[in-house]
Amino acid sequence: MKVFVTGENGQVVKALIKLADQDSLDVYTAGRPWLDLSELADDDKCEHLRLMIEDIGPDVVINAAAYTNVDKAEEEGDMAAAVNTTGAGAVAMAAAKLNLPIIQISTDYVFAGDKTADIYDPENPEYADYDAEDLADIRANLSDGTYVETDATHPQGVYGQTKLEGEKLAAYVNPKHVILRTAWVYSETGNNFLKTMLRVGAARGELGVVNDQFGAPTHADAIAQGIVKVARNIVEQPDNTELYGVFHMTCRGYTSWHGFAEAIFKASELAGGPTPKLNSITTEEYPLPAPRPANSRLDCSKIARVHNVELPQWQDMVMKTVVKVLGQTQEDKN
């Protein structure tokens, strides 16, 4: 299978490139300066992109390029929109003109992050005439607080808004679309929470980490493997409309940023790395320009059912990543 991927330096793109060596997969990437999504409002640039894709002849186009600086997006809204909205639409349109499916990578930030679990109240007068079987069905269908694909979107910042608009535009211009929402991405490459914790932890003896935001730390390698499986499904079954649409894809389980930091430094201790003291703080105690979702937990049952994609538990890939990052740090010192 041959895929064309926008971006070259992102965590997910690098993870896809690694898979090309072991999964009978040809990965072609294009990033700046050869392909800059912020310039795709220009018709000539769009045609250049279409010709580039046509020349490569992929089975699937994957838009993994994005403006991801959540805080800076509050000041650079036009740039964020040019990449995340207009750019995403242009990539999807180029794919559509060649009758190719588009896989658009998106984010938990399209939601408000305020969803809570439903609580069963046996004293609810509405249940008075329900029998035991009906009540069991009601309890079974109560939400656990995770976001499903059909939940109302309500982004709280510019980044989330531009990504949501990019989702809508990609879906509008290309019927063969898969929107994959993920969250809390990390790996041994790029800028991410795990690498920041190890860097800052090596310089300080004590850290305060937010303990009231929840999500599933998701390794870029796991995301890449999930993307490839989805891509193979839509290539092998191009007329199966169930395979298209919006899907959530994160590692299983969930934790807080503080819980993630605890796992990182537990692994770091075993690997001979930094072990600072961790203090639990609230979001209010760590203000940032852009709001963060308090709840980034995504229900991934749809992608498991439709695409047979189930990512590992979030804890499973922490240790190996910490070891790799600590090894890179040691190499840099040498």
Automatic annotation (TrEMBL):
Q: Which InterPro entries match?
A: dTDP_dehydrorham_reduct (IPR005913), NAD(P)-bd_dom_sf (IPR036291), RmlD-like-bd (IPR029903)
Q: Which GO terms describe its biological process?
A: dTDP-rhamnose biosynthetic process
The UniProt record lists the EC number as: 1.1.1.133
* Source organism (scientific name): Hirschia baltica (strain ATCC 49814 / DSM 5838 / IFAM 1418)
Q: Which cofactors?
A: Mg(2+)
Q: How is the cofactor bound?
A: Binds 1 Mg(2+) ion per monomer.
Q: What is this protein called?
A: dTDP-4-dehydrorhamnose reductase
Q: Which GO terms describe its molecular function?
A: dTDP-4-dehydrorhamnose reductase activity
Catalytic reaction equation(s): dTDP-beta-L-rhamnose + NADP(+) = dTDP-4-dehydro-beta-L-rhamnose + NADPH + H(+)
Q: Where would I find the RmlD-like substrate binding domain in this sequence? A: 1-322
Instruction: Cite the entry's keywords alphabetically.
Output: NADP, Oxidoreductase, Plasmid
Q: SUPFAM superfamilies from the entry?
A: NAD(P)-binding Rossmann-fold domains
Q: What Pfam families would the database entry show?
A: RmlD_sub_bind
The record's similarity note reads: Belongs to the dTDP-4-dehydrorhamnose reductase family.
Which leading EC class covers this enzyme? oxidoreductase
In UniProt terms, what function does this protein have? Catalyzes the reduction of dTDP-6-deoxy-L-lyxo-4-hexulose to yield dTDP-L-rhamnose.
| Pathway stated in the Swiss-Prot or TrEMBL entry | Carbohydrate biosynthesis; dTDP-L-rhamnose biosynthesis
